[in-house]
Each structure stands twice: as structure tokens, then as C-alpha cells.
Amino acid sequence: MKFLFKIFFISSLVINTSIARDIILIENNASHEEGKLLVRILEEKFNIPRKLISYKHINTSCRKNSDAIMQLCLKSNGELEVIKVDRFVVENSIGTFLEMEK
């Protein structure tokens, strides 16, 4: 049953990306190096595929203006702020990706 859920969930994420909805949106107001580090942490620590992560370097403050499942803001002082999150989707997907590591 868990396997079927994983297949269903991963396929739904792929379908969502095919209709141009951001899954994880990172808006970076800090340095490019800090932004790349955050992307690498999501990829390596949480096993999130790069194609599910959208990255934007911005010169203004972050605003909640996206339909992404999770919107993160890396502020100019290096602080990470969660702007928006769909808890149900994130809790189930992170668990799925972490179990894939085992």
C-alpha cells in the first residue's frame, strides 16, 4: 500500500510540474552562493529532485504571490523564511523522498 501511495504521489508531482506549477519555489535575496547551498541541501539531505525546485534571484523583498506548494525566501541577511506551505503535501512528499533513500 505504501508503494502505491508513493507511485501515486510522485506521479501527481510530475503532473503538477508539467502544468507549470512550482512545487518548491526559492526566492533568493541573498548571495548566489547561499541560494545554491540551499538548493544543494534540499537535493542531498531531503532527496528532492532538482526539477521540483524553482530558483529565482530577486532584488526586492519576497512576497506571497505564487501558487507553489512551498515558497521559501532566503533574505539578504541569510535568514530563511517560509512564505507559504501546503503542509499536507509537504509532509507526505518529504516522507516519501526520505524513504526512497533507505
Element layout with pairings:
Layout (H helix, E strand, L loop, with lengths): L1 H17 L5 E5 L3 H15 L6 E5 L12 E5 L5 E6 L1 H15 L1
Parallel strand pairs: 1-2, 1-3
Antiparallel strand pairs: 3-4
For this entry, give a set of tags.
alpha/beta; 3 helices; 102 residues
Number of domains: 1
The number of helical segments is 3
Oligomer: single chain
Q: Any low-confidence stretches, pLDDT <50, length ≥5?
A: none
Order of helices and strands: HEHEEEH
How much strand? 15-25%
Helix content: 40-55%
- Backbone shape: globular
Strand elements, count: 4
- Average pLDDT for all residues: 79
The strand line-up of the biggest sheet is 2-1-3-4
Structural class: alpha/beta
Intertermini distance: 17 Å
Largest sheet: 4 strands, mixed
For the CA atoms, what is the radius of gyration?
14 Å
In short:
By secondary structure, the protein is an alpha/beta fold. It has helices at residues 2-18, 32-46, 87-101; strands at residues 24-28, 53-57, 70-74, 80-85.
Characterize the structure shown.
The chain is 46% helix and 21% strand. It is of the alpha/beta class and 102 residues long. It has one domain (2-101). It has a four-stranded mixed sheet, covered by helices on one side. A hairpin with a 5-residue loop joins strand 3 and strand 4 (80-85). The longest helix has 17 residues, at 2-18. The chain starts with a helix and ends with a helix. The mean pLDDT is 79.
